[in-house]
Amino acid sequence: MMEKQIRAVCEKFCIKGEYRRYEIVNSGHINTTYRVYFFRNGAIKDYILQKVNTYVFTDPIAVMENISSVTEFIRAKIKQKQATAKRNVLHYCKTEDGDYYTYTEDGGFWRCCRYIDESVCYEHTDDLKVIEESGIAFGEFQRYLSDYPVKDLHIVIPHFHNTIWRYENFRKAIDENLAGRVKETEQDVAGYLSLEEIATKPYRQQKAGILPLRVTHNDTKTSNVLFDAKTREHLSVIDLDTVMPGLVAFDFGDAIRVAASTCAEDERDLSKVALDIEKYEAFTRGFVSSVKGGITEAEKNSLALGAIAMTVECGVRFLTDYLNGDKYFKIHYPDQNLVRARCHLVLARDMIAHLDEMQAIADKYYTK
Ligand code: GN1
Ligand code: MG
Asked: For tag attachment on the chain, is the N or C end more exposed, with fewer CB atoms within 10 Å?
């Protein structure tokens, strides 16, 4: 059944050659992803098919408009300096009608992109070179889009990194107690409520005009970068669903949340959870040197704070979803959202304890 649907979608995207097989890609908490293998001109050609989660992305066509426009923009920039951009930016396929998407009979919204040859991605890594490379990748992304017209982007998820709004939703979930889980999470709830002031600071600074809105990726976890399988150098940033106006501090911070943690984002053993300052430094070196002079002094001063804001915000979102009965993030076992939330609370507190040190490292690599 699934295979039939997958083959039908491939046909819509005019993929040539002989279909071989598909596999499920089990990363990402939102969309459903498949890798599909074709045989053409004596070689295997593979593609990534995704069924977009339309509960989360209520206007998926707007998502694809953002993505196609941003990837074309980046492609043109890369082609100014090298012959091909094939491995350095995603290439989405069009249907016969010229659309970057197709629907299946069950109402599913699908898209398809070429798989980047000899690439790998990591959910979590201890390899400092890979971490520094991921910093370079997101810094480069920021630089490529520094002159992209921000106002042309669709706001595909309103209030996405509006930390104040995330807290409002959290309070609503506590009041409604839809899944009857408030009692067992009393301590976690109190812990997150106590961090509201610090977590909402970058957002308030943007509202006050201290921090500018830029084109940002907004989902900068380590698994959203592809690396060369042999050299471990960065190739391309992926998962462009949430490219929207945002803060540099948020892209930096959301990356640190994952890249500079001692463990995975759902570590149950909280004694293992901490900020790894060496990893933090590796990412920061990559990111700050790669955005070069493209960020203001105020933005540089907001980076470490952004890491705290994004770690708290993400934890608040996991806990809110747990309280609501796991409606948003995919879970692989019953209390995964609670485990994720607890892990983020410990990580955020450790970051707060090291804020000065984190800030000093950002200062060290910054040049105007
Ligand atoms: C989701 O889809 P994925 O796994 O890249 C989420 C991010 C969270 C992340 C936590 C659209 O990202 O905001 O930070 O999970 N994406 C959306 O791992 O909500
Ligand atoms: Mg994503």
From this structure: N
d(CA 334, CA 330): 10
Output the six-digit token pair for 19.
């279909």
Q: Which amino acid is at 304?
A: A
218-263 pLDDT, tens digit per residue, is 999 999 999 999 999 999 999 999 999 999 999 999 999 999 999 9
Dist. CA 241 → ligand 2 center (Å): 6
211 CB near ligand 1 (under 6 Å): no
pLDDT at 293: 76
pTM: 0.97
Q: What φ, ψ does residue 175 adopt, rounded to 5°?
A: -60, -45
Handedness of CA 268, 269, 270, 276 (dihedral sign): negative
Which DSSP state fits 365? Answer: H
Which tens digit of pLDDT belongs to each residue from 112-168? 999 999 999 999 999 999 999 999 999 999 999 999 999 999 999 999 999 999 999
Neighbours of 158 (CB within 10 A): 9
3-state helix, strand, coil in the chain (%, to 5): 50, 15, 35
Structure tokens at 334: 């019953």
Helices and strands: H and E segment counts in the chain:
12, 10
Choice from 219, 242, 319, 327 to test ligand 1 binding pocket (greatest atom count within 8 A of CB): 219
Residue 267 CB–ligand 1 contact under 6 Å:
no
**Residue 29 in contact with ligand 1 by CB distance below 6 A:** yes
